[in-house]
Write a structure and sequence with these properties.
heterodimer, A: mainly beta, 4-stranded antiparallel beta sheet, 11 strands, globular, B: mainly beta, 6-stranded mixed beta sheet, 5-stranded antiparallel beta sheet, 0% helix
Chain lengths: 118, 112
Amino acid sequence: DVKVTQSSRYLVKRTGEKVFLECVQDMDHENMFWYRQDPGLGLRLIYFSYDVKMKEKGDIPEGYSVSREKKERFSLILESASTNQTSMYLCASSLLASGGPSNTGELFFGEGSRLTVL
Amino acid sequence: EDQVTQSPEALRLQEGESSSLNCSYTVSGLRGLFWYRQDPGKGPEFLFTLYSAGEEKEKERLKATLTKKESFLHITAPKPEDSATYLCAVQGGYSSASKIIFGSGTRLSIRP
């Protein structure tokens, strides 16, 4: 079974703290994504990566950074957490190949990390 | 700008009462339209991909259809276990590296 594992299901942090959200996939997928999900706004793309050490900004990258040192691991970093970053964070991976032929486009999601910033 | 709009926001049905969920989209060069199911507190789970107008796909009580402007997710004789939020997403553009844009979802509730 394919699996995307997010390190923490629930986190509570204080304003100004540095936050790390870790995501690991065991499917040897090239592509990994970080989304946040808020009521009424749907899933919004923060960052994505098509290869190790490569990253691309999504629609809402401000206040976030990412790291992909290994193919299976994609980390989301909040350098200085703020209350408006309270949200559900979802990691996903896929076989979408940059510049290559399209495939099903299926994203495999983790269970999510619910972050509360006080 | 690529956009996905889902309606209704919420839908309550009686068990066995068939209905449809709508996904309207605007995209430059559709590469794929996707449907996902999301249960509370969990990540979305893939259901279907549709690539071109006229295409249909089925899975148990669900059938997805696609036109040039919208997609429908038809639910036939639903059961309480079909209760979930259903998300629609599109991928446009001319590269398989194009972003996938999600709608806000339809929250479906089936009463026994």
